[in-house]
Design goal:
With 407 residues, the chain is of the alpha/beta class. The chain contains 17 helices and 15 strands. Helix content is 36%, strand content 17%. A six-stranded parallel beta sheet has the order 5-6-4-7-8-9, with helices on both faces. A six-stranded mixed beta sheet has the order 10-11-15-12-13-14. Strands 2-1-3 form a three-stranded parallel beta sheet.
């Protein structure tokens, strides 16, 4: 038997260490760091007992052989602690961190940066696992104890090839459970907006006691007996309510007060320099996240808001935010690979914008128009990988530029 690791990012690097510790043979296929490439993997004649584990970022249309996720391999070969999978379009990271925060014997892992295979070495009793649609796509039989799904909006369309496929992958745990002959102790919390999908309908028909559908946080608070006075504004209040709901559903002990949780960086993170507020919302990597930020700031806006959009749109539709962008107090700047396309879409809706290739160029232009009490919002509605290694690096450059420009 050979274990083939396709792609060698964080996920498969951590998995390789685990395989080495178990003296299991593996081979890496990666276009960047290995002599063996993805093309070489696709040309392989496989043995029937070979296992092919893919890095989640590699889309299925690039693969010629059946592959599985690291989740699938680990859940099939190791005894995992109690696990909560957290997925959705926005808020996954914060909700995952909140789930881990609630109990000292819990650990946040998965897409959040600590691979699942590495998390297993920490020997925690509860794993809060941020789970991407990519990983779900490649997962065949593995299931968590609790599946927590945040609202689903258009994202990663270029990877999944359609919004319908994206939704199907987000609902994959329900499909897996339905296909099980011997049912596991699986329960889920799902947005009611997905109630009419084929998968949810089938699940409700046979397993209504295992699913809770919510429209908003008030539904969750009422059903799970959660206090109304959570000390976070939307959307973080929904994240907190969902984290608490998952613990209530699982009857897990809640040790810490959710109000003591500190929100992570690059999500509507505010800085003030010389009377101007700079808002780092670099983690807004899709239009729905940007919509949430705009809704929040426009509700109290009294001056000018300079908005920076752009990067890799991933095939998403920005029509969701267009009504908000018609506000005359917003000045729009677009950047990055899809910046010109965004500007064209805005122009078709009679919305003016200025395109600059880089964030630095946009910030230099914005500086000349700034007045006291203005807001500069980096909420790109796009991924960062066209120009940055991560959304965090994009956010860091934004704040560094703000400090420099206003010094």
């Amino acid at each position: 038997m050979m274990i083939n690791l396709i792609g060698y990012g964080l996920t498969n690097k951590a998995l390789a260490k685990l395989l080495e510790s178990k003296h299991l043979a593996y081979k890496v296929y990666d276009d960047s760091i290995s002599a063996s490439t993805l093309k070489d993997f696709n040309a392989l004649v496989l043995n029937k007992d070979d296992i092919n584990i893919v890095s989640p970022g590699i889309p299925p249309f690039k693969l010629k052989h059946p592959v599985i996720s690291d989740y699938e391999y680990l859940y099939s070969n190791y005894k995992l602690p109690f696990s909560i999978w957290i997925s959705g379009t926005n808020g996954k990271t914060t909700t995952t961190q909140m789930c881990a925060f609630l109990n000292e014997d819990s650990l946040a892992c998965g897409n959040i940066g600590l691979p699942l295979s590495e998390a297993l070495t920490k020997h925690k009793k509860i794993l809060a696992i941020e789970t991407s649609s990519f990983t779900l796509h490649y997962t065949k039989t593995a299931l968590p104890d609790i599946y927590l799904l945040l609202p689903v909006e258009q994202d990663h369309i270029s990877w999944h090839e359609s919004f319908s496929n994206y939704i199907d992958d987000k609902l994959k745990p329900l499909s897996i459970f339905l296909a099980q002959e011997k049912k596991s102790d699986f329960k889920c919390i799902i947005p009611s907006s997905l109630e009419d999908t084929k998968i949810v309908k089938a699940f409700l028909k046979c397993h209504k006691d295992r699913i809770f559908l919510y429209e908003d946080e008030s539904d969750l608070k009422s059903h799970f007996d959660i206090k109304d006075s959570i000390n976070f504004a939307f959307p973080f209040s929904l994240d907190a309510t969902l984290a608490l709901s998952s613990y209530k559903l699982a009857k897990l002990p809640i040790i810490k007060d959710i109000d003591d949780f500190k929100i992570g960086g690059h999500r509507m993170e505010e800085y003030s320099f010389n009377g101007v507020t700079f808002i780092d919302d670099s983690k807004a990597t899709n239009p729905h996240a940007t919509h949430a930020a705009l809704t929040h700031y426009l509700s109290t806006l009294k001056s000018t808001l300079f908005l920076i959009l752009g990067g890799d749109l991933k095939g998403a539709d920005i029509s969701l935010i267009i009504p908000l962008l018609k506000n005359p107090k917003i000045k729009i700047y677009t950047i990055g690979r899809d910046g010109l396309a965004i500007s064209k879409t805005l122009k078709d809706s009679a919305i003016d914008s200025i395109y600059k290739e880089t964030l630095k160029e946009a910030m230099c232009l914005i500086e000349s128009s700034l007045n006291k009490d203005d807001l500069v919002l980096l909420s790109p509605a796009c991924a960062s990988l066209d120009q940055y290694p991560s959304y965090a690096k994009r956010g860091e450059e934004f704040i560094n530029l703000a400090k420099t420009l206003k010094s």
